[in-house]
Structure formats: C-alpha cells, structure tokens
Amino acid sequence: MRLDKLLANSGYGTRSEIKDILRAGRVRLHEDVLSDPAFHITDEQARFLTLDGIPVTSSRYLYFCLNKPDNYLTAMSDDRLPCVGDLLPRALQSKKISPVGRLDYHTTGVLLLTNDGELSHRLTSPKWHQKKVYLVTYTGESLTDKEVALFAKGMTLMEAGHAPEKLKPAELTLLSDQQCRLTLTEGKTHQVKRMMAFVGRPVIALHRESIGTLTLRDGQKPGEMYPLTPDEIASLKENTDM
User: Fold this and answer.
1) Candidate list 52, 70, 86, 104, residue with the active-site label
2) Terminal C-alpha separation, the chain
3) Does domain 63-126+223-239 sit in CATH 3.30.70.580?
C-alpha cells in the first residue's frame, strides 16, 4: 500500500496533511526517514513504521496508559491550565483519543486514554463493578478498624446543602499512620476526598494505582505513557465482559 494512503487510512490526517508530515521527516522505517508519499509499504514493513518515534498502528482503536502528573487537568485541551492532552505526542493529536474517567487536578497515577467508547463506558459505569485502587495520604488521627467497617458497609455521605448519598461498599486497607489504600467500584465526583473528609481525615495526596486490570509499569515516570499490549487490552475487555 502507498505510504500516504496507509497513514491517512490509519487516522493520522488527510492526504495533504500526511504530505506535510512526510516532508517534515517525521516518519521512519527502522532508522530510515521516509518522505515519498508513493513509497510502497508491505505488511511486514508496516510493523516497523514509526511517526515521531511512536509505532504506527492501523488499528481502529488505540489504548495508552498515562501516569498522570500533578497539576494537570484530565482534559484534552484547556485555555488556562495544563491538561493531559498536552502530553500526547503530535502523532496522536489527530487520533481522537480521550481519557477514561476523570482524575482531579492534583490526583496522579493511572489514566487510560483510548478512542474505544464501549470499553471506556464499561470501565466507568458502576454497572460493571470495575475496581479503582487509590493510595491515599491524609492528615489527622490514624484510621482505625471502625472506619474500615464503615467503608465496607457502604457509607452514606451527609453533606451540608446536599441530600444524603448512599455509596457502594469500599475496601479500606490501613497502611501507616497517615496512609491507606482505598478500592472503589464507582466513580462519583471527588469521591475519595469526600469519603475521607466525612471521617475527618482531609486528603493531602491521592494516587490511583490501578483501574480494572491496568497498572503503571515499573519505573513509569509522571507524564510518561505507553501503548497497551494485546494481552493488556484483552484483559481489560475480558474483565468487562466485552
């Protein structure tokens, strides 16, 4: 297949945009820069094709795991503040991927980016009971077995100006004097911080360790992202009955 057709069909831009990409020397086969739109790419060669150093994929769906840094909005664009969309390589800017769920501005950790709408829905809908695990650092007295039981039962939030809100059971694991691990199967707005505030322990740092079967890789730094392997994608789908 012609190089420009392969890239256009894979969603990297229009034919004219692809020509600009090629002219800029952004496409490589192994270490060789490819600039000719009419260059013929075999199926075998396509496996080693990169754009801006990112492997080119002709798959309809893309999946990336980002270690979301502090001080970033979970949004693809914003006029005022840094957002996770700013962290995407240029090669992915036109692929229409978006975050699955939302992490607060100061919350760090696992964030899935994909254009697979069905998987995104299943990972965020309470109907599918997907576990989201958070490492919580808080202030105040150390949590006790009393709070563990309260969270496990499913607490009812009583907040000023709001109707009582019943939450699903959550697993609270005590780690140290000011740190715990909290596992949820729903994702209400600011839920972890609201639950911790309800028991008088304000959150000072929040890090999501996993969502479903997806975790960060060893050594993955804030702001770094990696494409999911076929096994990781299959695991997420199997876990949501897809």
Assistant:
1) 104
2) 32
3) yes
